[in-house]
Amino acid sequence: MKKFFLLLFAVVSVGLFSACGEDPIREVAPVADRLLKDTAFELVEVSARSVKFPVIIYCNNRLENSCLNVDMAVPADSVWRMGIQSAGPASVRVDGVEVWRSAGGTGASFPREIAYDTWLFGDYATLRLSRGVHRVEVETTDVLSLGVVDSLDFAAGGVEYSVIEHGPEGEGYSEVRYPVAPGAAFAKHPYAEWHYANGATMLGLLALADASGCARYLDHVRRFCDFNLACLPLFEAQYARGSLRTQNYRLFRRGMLDDTTAPALPFLEYARRFGATDSLRTLLASMADYAMREQPRLSDGTFVRPEPRWTVWCDDLFMSAVFLMRYAAFTGDPDFAEEAVRQALAYDRYLRDPETGLVFHGWDATHGHPVGERWGRANGWFAWAFSEVLAHLDPAHPSYERLVAVHRRHLEALMRCQDAEGMWHQLLDRPETYAESSATASFVLALARAVRMGWVDGCNAGAARRGWRALARRIAPDGTMPGICRSMSIGTSAGEYAERPTLPNDPRGLGALFAAAAEMSMLNAYLKNEPHKP
Q1: I want to staple 317 with a disulfide (CB 3.0 to 4.6 A). Which of 35, 240, 347, 523 is the partner?
Q2: How far apart, in Å, do the first and last CA atoms of the chain sit?
Q3: 449-471 residue pLDDT tens
Q4: Is the peptide bond before 507 cis (omega within 30 degrees of 0)?
Q5: Backbone torsions φ then ψ of 93, nearest 5 degrees
């Protein structure tokens, strides 16, 4: 009897897919083609992008010891902590009083940014200052960086500096960057740059290339990697010069998983498919080394961020585990896969909401409670990451069935949140919030793959199909996909998430969209009992 119902389900499913004329590859093609059109693989000369923090003072182009002045305005009478970083001998005076001196410097010219706008300096000076403007005098023959930070190492709020930032060649200098292509649907940052969202997008485009056999998509990913690798020495020199927001600065900052393993995904796939030069192998090894040895962790080994200090971000499971699983296959070293498995189980333990089965955006490790909301895209990162870990894990692994159970439970919780149209919403447990495309795409790809791989029952194919149909109806003829939430930190209220704007063709959703189309195409072939041939 069970076999009869399974056969009946397969026949009905095939009929449903055929009746709607579903062709995910064709339907998503306008968005993929628009991405190719909107990506500019070129360099333009621009004025160097200044940073408001830290203050960088260049004296290494002068013939003798120099003293430069900075006016610093503090908003209140208080004790302030000034971070100082100097490559050579230097001194700092505030209102004529020496507050810091070093005969040998602190070993580097610039502080280390360990998270978004979170800075670690080589040394600090404690200052008791009254509200108002104070004169800071710097004496050095090299480069010195300074700035007032709070107890969490963020730039102190309300402190302002009046200094003309300039490069070592003088006041104002130019550098080269990637442009945003004219008329691009998404203009926040270039599609060509080293960025976690672009890494996910290229990974999704590779899946689409495999499922469709379209050489243009594969060629685009290859060109993306080749172009960035060719430009790497140029941008590294600009960063070393003190342009801390130069093109691809995240690659050189290397302060978080967003900077390292996530953007490296297409480069790893490039190496696996086409071979790797020694320099590419070194680059990939440095990304893996960051995750394994430098990424901050809780005492139990779970990846954690220092901003807000200390928090486990749901996003970071995708940012790390997807790379680690694939890197294990590339190197033949199972330690990387074991790390990914440990992180997946830990993230479920910290972030799962026992009431809904969904996951929270974050976990406050300092106070021991969840933070943020049951955000759609956070759950999307989680579902996509689990799907990737399972897809690349040996079914004989001792944790395989446990991971399948976690993934199945999460997908079941997600399906309870799907609306009548087939979409999922910005806040999954609040249907009054807007329907959100990146979350929907992530859930479609995870469900479609789970049915095909046997992780969930075949009856769940209907939820994947409804989700895909809802997404396909949203794709505009010009290749734009609306409703992708902008990037956001862990929110402090439901309203903060609900009011977060969306951007069309934001790469934070395109990768999931392309992968969803690929998975739906393979699911169709599976339901028709035909082997899928990429």
Answers
A1: 347
A2: 35
A3: 999 999 999 999 999 999 999 99
A4: no
A5: -120, 145
